[in-house]
Every structure is written in C-alpha cells, then in structure tokens.
Amino acid sequence: GPLIYLVNALAVGLSPRQEVGVWVLEVISIAITGFGIHRVVEREFGKDPAKLSLILFFGSLGYVLHPGNYTEEFALPLQVAALLQFSKSIRRTSDRRGWFVIGLLGGGLFLLRPNLVGLHLSIVAFLLLSRISSDALRQGLGELAFLGLGFAVTVGVLLAYFAANNALYEVWDEVIRFNTIYSVPTLRSGIDAVIEGARILSPTGLVIFSVAAWSVAVKSMERRGGFLSQGTLLGLAAVGLPVEYAMVAVSGRSLD
Question: Long-range contacts of range 155-164, CB-CB < 8 Å, 24 or more positions apart?
Fold first, then answer.
C-alpha cells in the first residue's frame, strides 16, 4: 500500500543508506510490538501468560519475517496498539474516543496493505455480536460509527496528501488494482496458503498451540454463558483466529 512509501521516506531520513534506516525501523517496530504484547497479555491474563506470549512471539518471529523487510513488520505496532485500546474500550460504556483511535489505526493498516485489516474485521464482528447478545445493539452501532470515522479520517488524510501531489491514480493502482491482481481467491490457492503458512510456523509449534488454546478458550467461555457476551481479548481471539485464517486464504498467499 502507499503508506509503505512514507515508511521508506522515514528510513532515508534516519540514514543516508536507506537499508540501514529500514533495519533501524524494523528493530524499533519489533521492540515496540514485544513491549505491547507483554502489556496487553499481562493486563488481561497476568504475568506468567505475558512471559509466555513474549517467548512465542520472539521464538516464531524469525520463521515469519526471514529474510526481513516485510510490510507486516511495520504493521505490528499498529495491531498491538489496537488490541491494547480494544481491551480498554470494550469495558467502557461511552469510550467514543477509544473506538475512534482504533479506527485511525485500522486506516493505517489498510494503507500499508489491505489484507492486514483482519484484526479490525474481528473487532467489528465481535463488537456487533457481543452487543446484540447483551441487548446493547444501539451502543454497538455508535461504537462502530466512531471506529468507521477514525478509519475514514486516516484514509482521507492520506488521499488528500496524494491528491495534492497528483498521485491519486497511483494510490488506486497500488491499493485496489495491484491487490486485486495479487490475490488469487480460489479454493485451491486458499487451502494451499493456509497449509504453507502452517508449514513455515511448524518448527515453533505455534499453530498447534494457537488452535488448541482457541478450542479450550471457546469451550471455557461457553460454560460461562457464551463467549460473545465476554468483553475480553479471549472473546476477540475466539472470533479473530478464524478471521485471520480466512484472510490468508482469501489472499491466496501465506506470507509474501
């Protein structure tokens, strides 16, 4: 997406040698993500699960990002920031600013690469389903409105910038046309992409661990009255894991 060009411009500003600047941004991005993951998990589940989350994150990172310089590296801080804000906002009845911030972050992810918005699709689905199940649909629609407004602001600001520089066609070509051609949404390619992603991560055991943890979480929350009524990251994860697998399948590609 077009936002990656601004990342590259920032890398040039950090060092005359662009690759050095990119490496610096990668290290900063991964460090921020690790800190954010620890904070989110510790807030929700405690210190020991937070330590385990860091081990899983850094233990699998090399398999996912080798040889480096993937767009996803720069998206990770935005995703973990959205998770942290979600964990705060879902417990408040009138946190419009928080949902607006989540939308801003979603717009940034979309402009980095459209198929990186799986987390925000999960948030939208979870929010709607949880509010419906608790007879608070009107509240949920209001929260989604502010989330959508934040998303529109980010995209609108970037579109205005590119319009001022006569580059709107290039944005269309990068975000819509390229990603439409790049994606291969067939059943065979989708299955292959999921299998390939699982193969890459197989040495870490992360896929088996995540599916097992997802199954246990869903069963546990069902016994407590249904996971859709639980305003926690556990509920979001129950919705989000299938969504993320679906996003991989729709793209037709595992990582590249």
Answer: 155/107, 155/110, 155/111, 158/2, 158/3, 158/107, 158/111, 162/2
Ranges in the chain, pLDDT < 70 = 63-69, 179, 181-186, 220-231, 251-256
**How far is Cα 74 from Cα 88, in angstroms, rounded to an integer?**
23
> Can you give the pLDDT at residue 256?
45
Q: Give the pLDDT confidence of 92-148 residue by residue, as tens digits.
A: 777 789 999 999 999 999 988 887 888 999 999 888 888 877 777 888 889 999 999
pLDDT of residue 64: 64
Give the relative orientation of helices 47-65 and 18-45 as an angle to the nearest 10 degrees: 150
At position 70, the amino acid (one-letter code) is: Y
Q: pTM here? A: 0.84
